[in-house]
Amino acid sequence: MRIALIGSGRVASCMGPRLKEAGHTIAGVYSRTLQNAQQLATVLGATATDSLEQLPDADIYLTMLTDDALAELAPAIVKGREAALFLHTAGSVSINVWREAGAARYGVMYAMQTFSKGAVIEWPQVPVFVEGSSPAEQEIIMSLAHDLSGNVSALSSKGRKKLHIAAVFASNFSNRMYAISERILKTEGVPFSVMLPLVRETARKVESMSPEDAQTGPAVRGDRKVIDEHLQLLKDCPEYAELYRLISIDINHNLK
Predict the structure, then answer these.
(1) Cα-to-chain-centroid distance, residue 32
(2) Which residues lie below 8 Å from residue 98, measured CB to CB, with a gap of 6+?
(3) How many CB atoms sit inside 10 A of residue 41's CB?
(4) Contact 170, 211 (CB under 8 A)
(5) Which residues fall within 8 angstroms of residue 177, CB to CB, at 6 or more apart?
(6) Is residue 78 classed exposed, middle or buried when 0-12, 13-18 and 19+ CB atoms within 10 A define those classes?
(7) Which end of the chain is more exposed for a tag (fewer CB within 10 A), N or C?
(8) How far is the C-alpha of 193 from the C-alpha of 179, rounded, in Å?
(9) Interatomic CA distance for residues 45 and 166, integer angstroms
(10) Cα–Cα distance between 132 and 237 in angstroms, integer?
């Protein structure tokens, strides 16, 4: 199929090459910044543009934009191309953004993964969740998703939003905890690398047991003495102390 990519950021830089590798033609790449579009288009052998009107004709218009940009640009993306299939890749945006923009055929193809430019993505294992405006469109999207991954499921917009919330906790918030850990370690001149064996083992355990069962630490033990000592050490960083307190209570409600 001929696919036009709308967006040239982290998702596009990872998904675009995978789709090309699967045999699809990437007809064009759009970005508000032409240089960004050109960088990705060069890799994909596609036409680069910073004008939606000049985006080449395609069977599928696949958007990889921020939620706000998608809502803003959807009508312009659809205009004059109503017969095409329009897809977005957002976790928290309803499928109806396309209907409201005037599309007749539309859907969602959400890959639940954290993307970085230049990262090597293990695509066969990445969960991809799809939704179509009709059974016919959903079948097409399913086929396209299977070109990305062997782990494809149908999921409604409501379900996808809850999935996205869960992903924020599992990935974005856990990464923020790593950043806080790194800041605390820096005060003693200790590199974050000392945490990597612990991080790896924590991730390994939840592959074979429930995260609830894998929980360790002073909160799950109800060790108030250690918790109070930690809170005292964090007194100069009240926001971290409050995070520590609230998460500890969530782990063990008896700590209230």
Answers:
(1) 21
(2) 74, 78, 86, 88, 106, 107, 133
(3) 23
(4) no
(5) none
(6) buried
(7) C
(8) 12
(9) 36
(10) 47
pTM: 0.87
According to DSSP, the residues that pair with 131 across neighbouring strands are 108
DSSP secondary structure string for all residues of 99-119: HHTT-SEEEEEEE-S---TT-
Place of tokens 């700590």: 255
The Cα 58–Cα 93 span in angstroms is: 23
CA 31 to chain centre: 19
Q: Look up residue 137 and give its two tokens.
A: 């469109």
Q: What residues form DSSP beta bridges with 153?
A: 129
Residues in the chain: 256
CB atoms within 10 A of CB 39: 16
Residues 6+ apart with CB under 8 A from 199: 178
Cβ count near 7 (within 10 Å):
27
What is the Cα–Cα distance from 56 to 77, expressed in whole angstroms? 12
- Kindly give the interhelix angle for 34-44 and 10-21, rounded to the nearest 10 degrees: 20
Tokens of 34: 């032409």
